[in-house]
Amino acid sequence: MEEVRLTLFNDFKLWNPNGLVLLQPDPFLNELTSMFEHSTEKGSVWVTLKRSSLKSKVQKNKMTTAGDAIEYRCLIRATDGKKTISTSVGAKDHQRFQASYATILKAHMTALKKRERKDKKKGAEFDKKEGGAKKPNRV
Amino acid sequence: MVYITSWDEFVERSVQLFRADPDSTRYVMKYRHCDGKLVLKVTDNRECLKFKTDQAQDAKKMEKLNNIFFTLMARGPEADVAEVTGKEHIDAQPTKKGRGRKQ
Q: Is A97 at the interface with chain B, CB within 8 A?
């Protein structure tokens, strides 16, 4: 069973090194935006960050033996449960990417609860714990 | 799989976990708009750290953690993330900017 899986995986890798759709950063960000937009009523959006050299073990071993430095990148994957997309950023372009990424998240993660700034309590149950009658609780 | 309740603890342990095994550690974010829930996970496939929230202010904190991981993963585990964490500068006063003009 495992042997079969490995073969299929390796064949898949030939035309798609990571086994997923690998995009340039900007198209990835556009697709990610789309994922958020289409999963407001139900579903989830997962984003995974992982360090990767985007090279196979074989390639890495060859490079190490040859004394070549292996360049690592930050691999970013996103999925809505149906489709998976990915991209990678390196040391030179991660700052630009993270700024755009932050903007997208800020714009779309709007269902989280906002809280009054002075209130450091997590919920109504914690009211009595603090005991401070600084401001009347308006909940 | 216990959820860590302290954000700072989650960040510190996550960075430690990554630095101990940069090749295996991954950082996962799951957002469910319909439930208004955000779950973060950092794991090296042995240990698993999780944080969950429904608070908007945690999303702001997460932005910093995102930047930390982008930096660590793109530049390497030795990368200096001090300027990214801004942990010491919780007030977020832009003391570095605006040398001349104090308004």
A: yes
Reported as a single tens digit per residue, the pLDDT across B68-84 is 999 999 999 998 887 66
- The verdict on a CB contact (< 8 Å) between B56 and A114 is yes
The ipTM (two decimal places) reads 0.81
Q: Please tell me whether residue A116 adopts helix, strand or coil conformation.
A: coil
- Give A60's contacts in chain B (Cβ within 8 Å): none
pLDDT at A105 over 60: yes
Say if residues B25 and B44 touch (Cβ distance below 8 Å).
yes
> What are the structural domains, with CATH classification, of chain A?
7-129 (3.30.720.10)
Domains and CATH numbers, chain B: 7-102 (3.30.720.10)
A55 lies within 8 A of chain B by CB: no
In contact, A88 and A74? CB cutoff 8 Å: yes
Interface residue of A88, A98, A119 to substitute, partner B, most B CBs within 10 Å: A98
Q: What is the pTM of this model?
A: 0.75
DSSP A42: S
- The percent of residues above 70 in pLDDT, for chain B, comes to 79
Residue A6, both tokens = 């490995």
